[in-house]
Amino acid sequence: MGKPATAVVGIGATGVVLAAALLSKDPDVLLVDPQPGLAESLMRMGLRVSGEIAYEVPVRRAYSRIEGLKDHRPDVVFVATKTFHLPRVLEELGEVFRPGMKIVSTHNGLGTEDVIADRFGAEAALRMSLNYGVSLKGPGEVELAFFNRPNHLGGLVPESREAGISLCDRLTAAGLDTAYVDDIKAFVWKKMIMKCTMASICAVTDKTIQEALAFPPTRKIADACFHEALAVAKAKGYDLGADYLKQALGYLEKVGIHKDSMCFDLANQSRTEIDFLGGKVVEYGQETGVPTPCYSVMTNLVKALEDKYLI
Prior knowledge:
12 helices; Rossmann fold; 12 strands; alpha/beta
């Protein structure tokens, strides 16, 4: 696989980092974001990343709609939108998709790669687990707080391996170290059990991760949710081992000084990603016959809070 024409859809906080890395080696990378005026701003101001990694790159081609990609026929499309935008993005990509195209989900949440596979086939779907933390400072400008190298990327079928390794090589050469793994879902589960558990607890209580784990009532909820999620993961074929919970809690207690992004979603009266976080654990529990009473309650509480302002 030679150097493909590449697009990044979704130029929010994580998408800026991904796009900037790719643009640092290939100035013809295509960007898409529907936010009014953002495409024009990106072409005028470029992308700027500070912190753990620094990039400052110009943007030649940015569009407000995916249909802008038609004439460029990209071979690879990274999707870095919010999870709830994924079905719409895939619908629009249907006008651009052609055999051999790879669509890479970089989302938070569980099962996003399966949504791509259901629409375009397993060979088209890849998943990337991002191991960096970033905050948006302005249009096209972010600060990278940490990067626990490497990111991980993988396909759903062996036929995607060559293309996946090529993408990892490109990202690593651009400073965004990324390793190809044969079972990407295992890495997603390891990361997302922490996110799925703490997001709803923090959002409902408006606590930081550290505060939620230090406060006995919310710690009790977190412990119960962790055990439910681990049981669901095991039923789905991913036994993360006896030491996982201890390691995960130790990690969260050290780094969880900030509020989860879902806290800000509720505060800003924005749609949350609960359907692909706690909601997905509940869905998988129903599929496998694993009870998830605590996850069900926390998921429904977030939905009830959303219902106050969502139209």
